[in-house]
Amino acid sequence: MSDRRKSRGMPPANQADFGPVDLELAVGTFHALAEEMGTSLVRSARSANIKERRDSSAALLDREANLVVQAEHIPVHLGALPASVAAIGERAQTEGDIWVLNDPYRGGTHLPDITMAAPWFSRGELVGFVANRAHHADVGGAYPGSMPAGSTSLFAEGLVIPPVRLEAGGIIQEDVLDLILANTRRPAERRADLMAQAAAVRLGLSRLSGLERERGGWYVERAFAEVRAYSLKRAAAALRELPKGTYRGCDRLEVEGLEHEEAPIPVPVEVRISAEELLFDFRESPDAIAGNLNCSRAVTVSACLFFARSLLDPSPFGAAGCQSLVRVLTRPGSLLDARAPHAVAGGNVETSQRVVDAILDALGEPLALPAASQGTMNNLALGGPSYTYYETLAGGGGASSASGGTDAIHSGMTNTLNTPIEALERDFPLRVERYEIREGSGGAGRRTGGDGLVRRFRVLEASSLSLLTERRRFPPPGRSGGGPGAVGRCLVNDREVPAKGEHRLDPGDTFTLETPGGGGWGEAGLGKQA
């Protein structure tokens, strides 16, 4: 028995061994807890962005900020959460604290994504953290929705929140809350969403305490360790089955509409698969740019973790083990490891998709992976005197050897729903005139790619529109001879506009997004299959 185990009164390891049933119960319990936290947040939030689109995530982490389990929520949130919790963990922890932050350079993604996390203690000792992240419809900055297409500095994108206590010893810090709300366009809505996040954190803490009472002292700590160890064992076994070697891929960021850029930006990657690790090397990435397509390192790591988990273990067991086996190399100051105060609003939502597709380009043929999906989140942010509204739109999924691509689905680093027309027209001065599948936009092939969609809006009051989209010039590629999906289109008053840009809309104006299709699989001449 170790001195630490003796000093804390913990049972010797051989007296509390976890068998297969114990592991299944533990991961099922923790996974259900994370899902419950997410459900609580969605049901308690006020904004359509969280309540309807479910642009939020939840996870449990150990005392070193390593993932234990994560709910099946938003990939770009969850892979970056450990870095945020690690930044929080650098500060002294006290029972009853709830921390809040959104700083992209301390584990955040972009400023609208606000993280809350709280330490969980057992018998006075820190055991782990519960955490969630939610995309808020506005956190200030130069443009409604805090997603300006033309931003060149983080300060133009909204309020930057370093790790600070929203609650200290169980008491809400009203001055901190007031500071945040004073820098948003809809403070009452922001307050409601922040309180929903805090309530979800408290729920997670309560459930862990209940487990400890039910299962006995030190159960949670031991179960955290056992789940992580078994997750690593599963992921390592899957890694050993992959073909070893070095693979190179590249994708391109589109810059149409950005005044400070002229040519597509390459996103190259070298992937090395060995028996010990899955290594992603992005050190050849170009320097950070003047615009907002830069990624913090946390976002780049998040994209790699998403891909690794998809390859190795997409089950509820997978998150912890994949985190342990992935190594990401970046060059400080580059596009994929930017430094403050570079703008990052588009990097989180669009460059992260390019990272995924660059890896897919490297590994797609050697590992017989599906064709590329739409490869964009089709971000639109709208605002006027009475509202702020943010949405990401689905598109076509890539086909595979087993099936055609799915129509109108979120893919890659996003996993949200849409805002239903009923909720959208109730809450905002907008009308939806078209919402339909974009027939024929999926790539041709033996298996056809999924179709994108068409969504046309009419504004009822003077509004500002910001667009951050991709795949308007370079289509999602097919696989194994399959054709590419159709590129997307952005239209204002039926006139095509660039992939990225800001527009003033008068009452009665329209804008339309036609989202890309997914790539097809296999040569069409070999016999088309749906």
Folded structure, characterized:
The protein is α+β, with helices and mostly antiparallel strands and about 525 residues long. It folds into two domains: about 5-230, no CATH class; about 370-530, no CATH class. It is built from eleven helices and 20 strands. The strands form four sheets. A seven-stranded antiparallel sheet has the order 2-1-5-4-3-6-7, sandwiched between helices. A five-stranded antiparallel sheet has the order 14-15-20-17-18, covered by helices on one side. Strand 17 (about 490) and strand 18 (about 495) form a beta hairpin. Helix 2 packs antiparallel against helix 6 (about 185-215), helix 7 crosses helix 9 (about 320-325) and helix 8 packs parallel to helix 10. The longest helix is centred in the middle third of the chain and has 29 residues, at about 185-215. The chain is globular, with a radius of gyration of 23 Å. The termini are far apart. The relative contact order is 0.12.
Globally, the shape reads globular
Low-confidence stretches: 1-15
Number of domains as seen in the coordinates: 2
The rounded Rg comes to: 23 Å
* Total beta strands: 20
